[in-house]
Write a structure and sequence with these properties.
mainly alpha, single chain
Length: about 130
């Protein structure tokens, strides 16, 4: 999967062995919809996407992430976004303070937002430590 995404989807490069053998896989309607959506995101046909996913798993290029770790990673990604926004807001407020010598109306709320964000990051770190995901 990572290889297909890295080169933008589409056909496999020349020189790779053609795929002539068939493996039959049965899916529910909901599973097929999820596979089709994932294939579309990768710019591949569902069968090509499934073949790539199978090869990624068989060749240990793809690692299954347990649910708990996926949830933790999702929260960390969300926190990374919060930290970026907090930093931008605070930087703009401090730039105004440095330019004018006076704090604008956004300095205090920006600093408070930064503190809330830092607390969320600390909470996430503690959760990771408690769950043993170090």
């Amino acid at each position: 999967m990572a290889q297909a995404s890295a080169r933008g989807g589409g056909r496999r490069p020349r020189g790779q062995e053609p795929r002539g053998l068939v493996i039959k896989v049965k899916l529910s309607a909901a599973e097929k919809a999820k596979v089709a959506a994932a294939a579309a995101r990768a710019g591949l046909a569902p069968a090509a996407w499934a073949g790539q996913a199978l090869m990624d798993a068989a060749e240990h290029r793809a690692v299954a992430v347990p649910v708990m770790q996926r949830e933790t990673l999702a929260e960390l990604f969300r926190l990374a976004g919060l930290v970026r926004r907090a930093g931008v807001n605070l930087n703009q407020a401090v730039t105004r303070l440095n330019a004018t010598g006076e704090a604008g109306p956004d300095l205090e709320p920006s600093a408070a937002y930064c503190m809330r964000t830092v607390r969320r990051v600390d909470e996430a770190a503690q959760l990771i430590i408690r769950r043993g995901l170090r």
